[in-house]
Amino acid sequence: LFTVRHGFPYQPSSMAFDPVQKILAIGTQSGALRLFGRPGVECYCQHESGAAVIQLQFLINEGALVSALADDSVHLWNLRQKRPAVLHSLKFSKERITFCHLPFQSKWLYIGTERGNIHVVNVESFMLSGYVIMWNKAIELSSKAHPGPVVHISDNPIDEGKLIIGFESGIVVLWDLKSKKADYRYTYDEAIHSVAWHHEGKQFICRQGKPIQTITPHGKQPKDGKKPEPCKPILKVEYKTTRNGEPFIILSGGLSYDTVGRRPCLTVMHGKSTAVLEMDYPIVDFLTLCETPYANDFQEPYAVVVLLEKDLVVIDLAQNGYPIFENPYPLTIHESPVTCCEYVADCPADLIPALYSVGSRQKRQGYSKKEWPISGGTWGQGTQSYPEIIITGHADGTVKFWDASAIMLQVLYKLKTAKVFDRNRSKEDKGSAEVSDEDPFAIQIMAWCPESRMLCVAGVSANVIIYRFSKLEVTTEVLLEVRMQYELNDIESPDGGCGGGELPNPGASPQTSGPPSHPSTSSNNSDGGNMPCLNTPLKQSAGFQVDSVVQLVWVSGEPPQQITSLAMNSSYGLVVFGNSNGLAVVDYVQKTVVLNLGTVELYGSNDPYQRQPRSPRKTRHPTFFICKDNIFLIFFLSLYFVRAVPTSMLTLLLCGCFTSLCFLLTVLLSVCPPRGANPLDHRDNSFSRSRSSSVTSIDKEAREAISSFHFSEAFARKGDSTLTPCLYVGTTLGTVLALAITLPPAGEQRQLQPVIISPTGMLVRLKGSVMRMAFLDPTGSVVPPAYEPWFEPNVTADGEEREKVRKRRPVSVSPSTSQDLNESQYAVVCSEKQAKVISLPSQTCISKASITEASFILRADVVQMSQGACLACFCANGHIMTLSVPGLRPLMDVNYLPLTDMRIARTFCFTNLGQAMYLCSPTEAQRLTYSQDTCENLQEMLGELFTPVETPEAPNRGFFKGLFGGGSQSLDREDLFGETSSGKASRSLAQHIPGPGGLEGMKGAASGIVGDLARARIALDERGQKLGELDERTAAMMASADSFSKHAHEVHRKGSQDLSAAE
Question: Quick one: DSSP state of residue 417?
Fold first, then answer.
């Protein structure tokens, strides 16, 4: 499995920045590492132990990172690969790590401990040096008290041999590394948190000692020379100088104690000005970004990165007013808690540009005009061949659309559904105590048609809002909120059943028949607990605009059941939703209720369960309200069924509501109670919104809830020869029921003639609640639902163009209705425990699989892969499984993630091409793929964190500084900390653990960790070695030539002697 993580790091604990590579690293309390470069370059890593990251240190411009954890371990990460890996680990066993410091271009890491000692680690080999600074030698010999843990270590900017050590008790020591003794000691009676050097190395800032100047930025200065008022501790301070101006002093904390309830602040002091920047969340850490990595030069700060508990803020120090940079990372997923998710792959190509065009108008103003300063890394080479969109629903009623086509998310558009409701009236009706207990606008379920751009959302307050997408701005004038209630006369039959008067014939015209109903003014059926809609003009910007609002009402002082399932089909113009009592179908084209009945009525006379009526409550019939304005209608439906609803009521709901509309409008306006009156004051306040108290009086079978819906063109009945529009309903008891839909012809008839829905019986029964349904064609490919292509609903043109829009016919992607009987369909049904494939129209089960016995399925989907379709399941035991369809043969079973939080179950969703996502923490989303093709493509899309960059030149010491010793003093740490001079460290103090990065990774990282100077030294050594070998070869050749010359001379001499003798 290949995973990518998005969002803000959950519970951040530390931060570091590489000023040359321009990469930001954030550690969390769960041991996670998030690395950020330029927009589109980010990476997620995880420590195996899961311990909190207490500190991070970059090996600047070396492609490596050191992390210190709360379990007293130190790790070296190699960043020179797309997926960073641990090269070395060091686990301390006798002392606890409290602080780390790695000087620039040094391979020696200082580690401070809770006992007050400081150890030195070679980052090349990750082995301890024998050099140790003991706490009892650092403090006064006369002092008997322990100074506490080490909270700060830093070297003097101009003298590498001087180390400043801060102890928690308030003692600060300037330690001479060569002489191994303390040069100065400063003592204060309060705890110390931070120390900051001036770049010249002659002064430092901290909250202690015998200072030359005391600064209390937020304390009131008395005129009589007394001490300033006490303030809260300054948790961190940084001192940054500029070449042509006053230095910057930046600090967190330090507010006076009288600022009760004030938000956390960051203070920026520059010259005589002091700016207090309020933050939305508590400050975890901050870093000042400077132009140079050298501590002994003017820093020239240009930005401050502030890590908050739930946000990342970058402040521009170069502009007046200190504006913030616009954050390009997708870190606002948690802006309001995520309650549900949808993941759509391979959506229409023009959808993302359309959403981006309307979403770009929602951006805030006032950001810094400079480019984002965290700009390291390079983008990957791969590209996604199809667009992807992620939709998140939130607790405050917002819906966010994200572009997921790249490796990083990008927010496209944000929709605020709460605008539809009147918040002020809601608080008045309910009382402030009840409203604050929950999120009344939270999104619970979403249904979306990408092709038609129709969106349907269901909220926890039992409301459904239907949206259309438009590029034009409109204003909805809500002139008057009118409620009308239909309530049938209750007539008790001798056998306890429901009787009724004479009802109109099913074929009667709506214009000639009326319902035997009367307007009711009873407060028992008031909807005083519902979220009221706005009754003022509603301005709707370009984007998703309200088409209809559906609201379930309170009945007899009890709240409606929450909506458990939702579906829509733009081709049919229908929206269906259900809860634990029944279902309702709404025709949003005609703004009418097509169907409103209980779950029991779906079975008809074939109900397999013996259900008992509720007792002792009186039988109630469903009621609904209609609120109409000149733009859209608001339906108030009551799905509060107490026993089976008569079938003839369906005709009543369709035909009767229109004939008495005008009459009831006049009557109800005269009897409607005042708006301020609350008819529900007598109700019991101990109820729970998610479950009515009356439900406990019935048995399990009577609480059969609707769990899933699916629209499709299928064979509605056994033996049918033609395909018809159908709605399939799944229940919590494992039953799948079919309903046939009869639609009027397209065009003007669709606006006038009613939609007829009739139950056709039970299709199949499974073990456990029905999770998902899908249909396959004879070749085994998924049959997508029919859809209506998107068109601009707010067209301003008249005549032919408007007529074309009105007469556009839906696009059906289902097989032809003249399909032969032999070319059957396959219905795939998956429940919490098993899956079945049914052949249609014969309705015979051709395959069956028991997916899990010990656990249960949380999410299932029939997804289209590159080579066919499959059934993907995520179980509560953490297994992700795929099965072939229609054969239901196991393809994959991976133990990925156990269910540790209901958030995972609520947000996990599959999509096509082998991808899935879920919310892994309250602030982070995790994407994963189980397809090899997609995995390889995503690997290529990953960016590179490390890029070869030359290290800036060191500042020039100058002639006079070099002459009089005022410049930087270098230190040969190798000679000081090496084994020859300091000896070996105790083996029992820490254990070295090779990392899983591999030998090749170690070699590559080691060559980068040595540093520029060390690499040059190695290059010189290698060059010297090669030159030495060349000298040896030259000498050997010269010796060989000399020997040859001597041998030739000897041969010549002998030859001459032999010639003389012959003569």
Answer: G
3-state SS of 539-551 is EECCEEEEEEEEE
Distance CA 240, CA 259 (A): 28
Output helix, strand, coil percentages for the chain, rounded to the nearest 5.
15, 35, 45
Residue 20: partners with Cβ closer than 8 Å, 6 or more residues away: 60, 61, 293, 949, 951, 952
For residue 59, the cross-strand partners are: 64
> Would you state the pLDDT for residue 620?
40
Distance between CA atoms of 457 and 448, rounded to whole angstroms? Answer: 9
Place of tokens 């060091």: 90
Cα torsion 361, 365, 371, 376: sign? negative
Of 172 and 813, more confident: 172
Mean pLDDT, the chain, rounded, equals 77
Q: Which of 810, 815, 809, 832 is nearest to 775 (CA)?
A: 815
Mapping DSSP onto H, E and C, the string for 713-739 reads: EECCCCCCCCCEEEEEEEECCCEEEEE
**238, 973, 156: which is closest to 172 by C-alpha?**
156
Question: Cα–Cα–Cα angle for 831, 889, 856, nearest 5°?
Answer: 30
> Coil, strand, or helix at residue 667?
helix
- Residue 370 tokens read as 């400079």
* Structure-token pair, residue 722: 């033609």
Task: With CA atoms as reference, report the closest residue to 332 among 388, 409, 445.
Answer: 409
Q: Output the CA torsion sign for 534, 537, 541, 545.
A: positive
Q: How many CA atoms lie within 13 A of 394 on its CB side?
A: 19
pLDDT tens digits for range 788-828: 999 988 875 444 444 554 444 455 544 444 344 455 899 99
Checking if the pLDDT of 691 tops 70, the result is no
SS3 state at 671: helix
Residues linked to residue 765 through DSSP beta bridges, in sequence order = 735
pLDDT of residue 497: 33
Burial state string for 735-748 with b = 16 or more CB within 10 A and e = fewer than 16: bbbbbbbebbeeee
- Give, for 65, the enclosing helix (H) or strand (E): strand 64-69
Confidence of residue 205 (pLDDT cuts 50, 70, 90): confident
Q: Report pLDDT digits (tens) over 839-851.
A: 999 999 999 999 9
Cα 601 off chain centre by: 41
Task: List phi, psi (to 5°) of 964.
Answer: -105, 10
Q: Please give the pLDDT value at position 549.
A: 86
Structure tokens at 745: 């012809």
pTM here?
Answer: 0.80
- Shortest CA distance to 404 belongs to which of 385, 382, 389? 389
Q: What SS3 state is found at 352? A: helix
At residue 270, what is the residue type? H
Angle at 506 between CA 503 and CA 509, to 5 degrees: 95
| Between 302 and 1052, the higher pLDDT residue | 302
Instruction: Return d(Cα 327, Cα 329) in angstroms, integer.
Output: 6
In this predicted model, what pLDDT tens digit does every residue of 2-33 receive, in sequence order? Answer: 889 999 999 999 999 999 999 999 999 999 99
User: H or E stretch including 803?
Assistant: helix 800-806
Helix/strand/coil for 1059: helix
32 bridge partner residues: 46
Spatial strand order of the sheet with 879-884 comes to 857-865, 868-875, 879-884, 890-895
C-alpha to C-alpha distance for 176 and 487, rounded to whole angstroms: 91
Residue 242 exposure: Cα atoms within 13 Å on the Cβ side: 15
* Residue 752 CA, distance from chain mean position: 45
Alpha-carbon span 588 to 635, nearest angstrom: 11
579 vs 565: CA distance, rounded Å: 7
